[in-house]
Design brief:
CATH superfamily of the largest domain: ATPase, nucleotide binding domain
Distance between the termini: 63 Å
Number of strands: 10
Structural class: alpha/beta
Helix content: 25-40%
């Protein structure tokens, strides 16, 4: 089972190759505007440098969102293009679930995990998971204020992490049950591939022709100003 995974949920860009759930290689870039320019290069590099060819892949996995509209569009379009060209199945993984997979083993069973991705202004994309990686509350877009997540914090420790957690820390940083890791956890194809292995085993494949990213909300654009004469 050889799975190529892509994550372009944010301005970062990563690809990984797993065999039977074991990581063979990964490339990650954390610079602005890298997804469109470098994604295909990273794909070719990770496949070739691990001694494989694209036609040996058994499936393509992609982080489906939530996240950056443009980033998700690029990642999903690239994954679908590979699936069509190579006649391979498509696997999709929730970006927040893959983020949770990076840290869940470091926290005790009574801890809730809340991955967060920055949205607009004081808004974040977030969800709640337990330390086993099971979803407790589905992904949603939330506007953060001093009343946010009160019902969760009364139940025990909650770890807020991801590039949206700083907004939450402004209001909840003094709460005794609010935990904020010192390191920012960003989406990564490494854990997308790990979760995709389970999806492959369970035959949870997507329809390549109709699959769309999980945008969560409509794409927002800024209206152009009328020129002043």
């Amino acid at each position: 089972m050889l799975i190529l995974s892509l994550d372009t949920s944010t301005t970062a860009c990563s690809v990984a190759l797993h065999r039977d759930g074991m990581l063979l290689g990964a490339y990650e870039l954390f610079t602005e505007r890298t997804s469109s320019a470098m994604l295909t290069t990273l794909i070719n590099d990770v496949v070739q440098h691990t001694g494989h060819e694209l036609n040996q892949l058994d499936a393509i996995a992609v982080a489906k969102g939530p996240g950056s509209y443009t980033g998700l569009r690029i990642g999903v379009s690239t994954a679908k293009g590979l699936c069509f060209a190579l006649d391979k199945p498509l696997l999709a993984v929730n970006t927040l679930a893959a983020m949770t997979e990076q840290i869940r083993q470091f926290y005790p069973a009574n801890t809730r995990l809340c991955p967060m991705l920055d949205a607009r202004r004081m808004e974040v994309y977030c969800a709640f998971y337990d330390s086993a990686g099971q979803e407790l509350r589905p992904t949603s877009a939330e506007i953060i204020d001093e009343t946010s997540f009160g019902e969760w914090l009364t139940q025990g420790p909650v770890v807020f992490f991801g590039d949206g957690a700083a907004k939450c820390r402004t209001f909840l940083g003094q709460h005794p049950n609010a935990v904020f890791p010192d390191v920012t956890i960003l989406p990564s194809a490494r854990t997308v591939g790990k979760l995709a292995t389970s999806a492959f085993t369970e035959s949870r494949f997507e329809d390549v022709a109709t699959f769309e990213p999980f945008y969560l909300k409509d794409f927002m654009t800024t209206q152009p100003r009328r020129a002043v004469v």
